[in-house]
Write a structure and sequence with these properties.
The chain is mainly alpha-helical and 434 residues long. The chain is 78% helix and 0% strand.
């Protein structure tokens, strides 16, 4: 291993240990690695150029709009409407509130595009409600934390846009459609765990809703759910591109939150806009610095070296894919999704393609894998939010999370080894050809 790579890894690990923000850690580590081979000024210019080039992409224009749309929907009062909608669908089953939690988090995560927002909005209501009904507090938090990540697979999803950039141009529309079945599979896997848990602990059964109540709750939630239909329907129908869909999502979210639900006041819009700019700036800084580190690794032939090592590990594609998944699971424990996708896609995608896996299939597998890292210690952002809402500790949450991890990993293995789960819908709608 070259000295520059050693410096890169050591600097990055030390900065993470010192709790330096991930974007700064990546940028400084890349700069220090370049100083090993070139002078200060050329190193600084190279990092700056690569960062600028990393965010100079038309596809990335969709990200700030989807972020703004998510913030508007998050503040627009849709959380309790989705919860009430989920109650009339599954609330009458044994342990029904656990199912309500999962469905609500999945839907809200998909609409807002943020697992943290889903945990905060849904968990803030569902965890106290489930506590009052006799459910275990830590189990309630575990459900919320794990199910909130499924919304990142169901469009609109910013991380799928980032993967499209990192992979060299896999269709964003195809990725969006491809995420539906894996996202639903993860949600169903978590519901299966909850069904067993509810039966073991004798959790209460809710009442069956009347036809009038069912219709009312469905109609109340329908405008919120229409955002998903509008975005994906427009893309599949060829009415607009994914980037144009993000603008449509903002206009729809604005009208819904301000004029229909009237949960967002006009005077609150500047605050929401500032928040969206702040979030966009963080995401773009992550993309820029991660692109610079990815270029540095490619310059040192790290992807090629890793590829040769993995291909020499076994002749069995199943073993190699399992190894890639294990590495990505470890990466997700310590690294945010955005830099992980940008740094490790150029490393592992060529290997996956050589094994016969399509770039679309690999992207869904990778994102699902890294979603698990969002709810694992020590740096899982969603995990910390869930602990704060439930007023519990990570140590107490790990035990009820274990069966959730197992369910998500089983879903990951199914997605990895059954390509049709990811590829069926994009091929069916003629958005992707292998």
């Amino acid at each position: 291993m070259d000295l520059s790579v050693i410096v890169l890894l050591l600097t990055f690990v030390v900065l993470l240990f010192l709790n330096v923000p991930i974007a700064i850690s990546i940028g400084v580590a890349t700069f220090c690695a370049m100083l090993v081979t070139i002078d200060f000024v050329p190193a600084a210019m190279t990092v700056a150029q690569r960062m600028g080039g990393g965010i100079n992409s038309f596809a990335l224009l969709a990200i700030p709009f989807f972020i703004l749309s998510g913030l508007l929907m998050g503040r627009g009062g849709i959380a309790h409407r989705l919860i009430e909608f989920a109650k009339v669908i599954v609330g009458f089953l044994p342990g029904g509130l656990a199912f309500v939690n999962i469905i609500s988090c999945t839907l809200f995560g998909a609409i807002s595009g943020s697992a943290v927002a889903a945990t905060s909005a849904i968990g803030g209501f569902m965890i106290p409600t489930m506590n009052k009904e006799g459910y275990d507090k830590n189990f309630n938090a575990a459900i919320t934390v794990s199910s909130s990540t499924t919304g990142l697979l169901i469009p609109p999803s910013n991380i799928l846009i980032v993967y499209s950039l990192a992979s060299g141009g896999v269709s964003i529309a195809a990725l969006f459609v491809a995420g539906y079945l894996p996202g639903i599979l993860v949600a169903l896997s978590l519901m299966a765990v909850c069904a067993v848990y509810a039966k073991m602990h004798g959790y209460p059964v809710g009442r069956i809703p009347s036809a009038k109540e069912f219709v009312k709750k469905t109609v109340d939630a329908l405008p919120s759910l229409m955002l998903i239909v509008l975005v994906i329907g427009g893309i599949i129908g060829g009415i607009f591109t994914a980037t144009e869909a993000s603008v449509v999502a903002v206009l729809y979210s604005l009208g819904l939150s301000v004029f229909i639900y009237r949960e967002v006041k006009i005077r609150e819009l500047p605050q929401i806009l500032v928040k969206s700019v702040e979030t966009t700036a963080i995401v773009m800084l992550l993309i820029g610095t991660s692109t610079a580190m990815s270029w540095m690794l490619s310059y040192e032939n790290i992807p090629q070296n890793i590829s040769e090592s993995l291909m020499g590990l076994s002749d069995n594609p199943l073993i190699i894919l399992l190894t890639i998944n294990l590495i990505l699971l470890c990466v997700g424990v310590f690294m945010d999704m955005t830099p992980a996708v940008l740094i490790f896609t150029p490393i592992f995608l060529p290997i996956a393609v050589e094994l016969g896996m399509s770039p679309l299939h690999f992207g869904i597998m990778m994102v699902l894998n890294l979603c698990i890292g969002l709810c694992t210690p020590p740096v899982g952002a969603v995990l910390f939010v869930g602990c704060g809402i439930a007023k519990t500790t990570i140590a107490k949450l790990v035990k009820p999370l274990m069966p959730m991890y197992a369910a998500m990993i089983l879903a990951l293995l199914a997605v990895t080894y059954i390509p049709a789960i990811s590829e069926f819908l994009p091929i069916y709608f003629d958005l992707y050809s292998k």
